[in-house]
From TrEMBL:
Record bears the keyword Signal: yes
Tree of life domain: Bacteria
InterPro entries the record matches: Iontro_rcpt_C, Solute-binding_3/MltF_N
Family matches, as Pfam families: SBP_bac_3 (PF00497)
Organism: Planococcus shixiaomingii
Signal as UniProt keyword: yes
This protein's UniProt keywords: Signal
Residues of the Ionotropic glutamate receptor C-terminal domain: 9-230
Domain Solute-binding protein family 3/N-terminal: residue ranges: 9-230
SMART domains in UniProt: PBPb, PBPe
Protein name: Transporter substrate-binding domain-containing protein
Length: 230
């Protein structure tokens, strides 16, 4: 902020395993979210210390002041806006149903009676599953990270899972998971970068300014194309 001193270092919470947004490769964090926040930091003159954790721990860590910023494929929701402030949206996503490739009896929520639905703690998927549990008559099984949730459906312990469509599309394409998406997209939302509510106007301003500059310079598109193309 113009004092000419050391750049400020912000603690940034990230989901441990959430490709193509955040993951580890050769001992380095990489992915769309990582590149975006690194580019914003460079543009706005701050430093980053990454704090990888399960998604469900991220908002609590912001609230406990253990993190300054969170970027974790986090959907902007009214519920979360009660405790965090979000940046301008940077990516469109939403939930879809996922089953094994050979599954032919589940094509929509109406087919879930008596089934087990796997979700990840603290996510919009978990929230959606709980909110519709009685209506569709399924059981919810909760996991702490996406790979465990995918595994549960792959190995037949759960019938279906809920995940953001860009994430599951990438997982299927990249790792050859024996899974497929079915039915209509269930929700549409947008990812935002979060800071603790009401106390971080200055950080949020830097994030929004940096994000806009990445969009204007074409760097945002380059980052997206690097991981998922069009
Ligand atoms: N977009 C979803 C959410 O905000 C999932 C995020 C995640 O699993 N990292 O809850």
């Amino acid at each position: 902020s113009g004092e000419g001193g050391e750049d400020k270092t912000y603690k940034v919470g990230i989901d441990t395993t959430y490709p193509p947004f955040e993951f580890e490769e050769n001992g380095e964090y990489t992915g769309i979210d990582i590149d975006i926040i690194n580019a914003i930091a460079k543009n706005q003159g701050f430093k980053i210390e990454f704090n990888p954790m399960d998604f469900g721990g991220i908002i609590p860590a912001l609230q406990a002041n253990q993190l300054d910023i969170a970027i974790a494929g986090m959907s902007i929701t009214d519920e979360r806006k009660k405790v965090v402030d979000f940046s301008d949206p940077y990516f469109d996503a939403g939930l879809t149903l996922v089953v094994t490739s050979e599954n032919t009896d589940i094509t929509s929520l109406d087919d879930l009676k008596g089934k087990t639905v796997a979700v990840k703690s603290g996510t919009t998927g978990a929230e959606f599953a709980r909110a519709n549990e009685d209506k569709y008559g399924y059981e919810v099984a909760q996991f702490e990270d996406s790979p465990s949730m995918f595994q549960e459906v792959s190995n037949g312990n759960a019938d279906v899972l809920l995940e953001d469509y860009p994430v599951i599309a990438y997982a299927i394409a990249q790792s050859g998971l024996d899974l497929k998406t079915v039915g209509e997209r269930l929700t549409g939302d947008q990812y935002g970068i979060a800071v603790l509510k009401g106390q971080n106007a200055e950080v949020l301003e830097k994030i929004n300014t940096g994000l806009q500059e990445l969009r204007d310079s074409g760097e945002y598109d380059k980052i997206i194309n690097k991981y998922i193309g069009e």
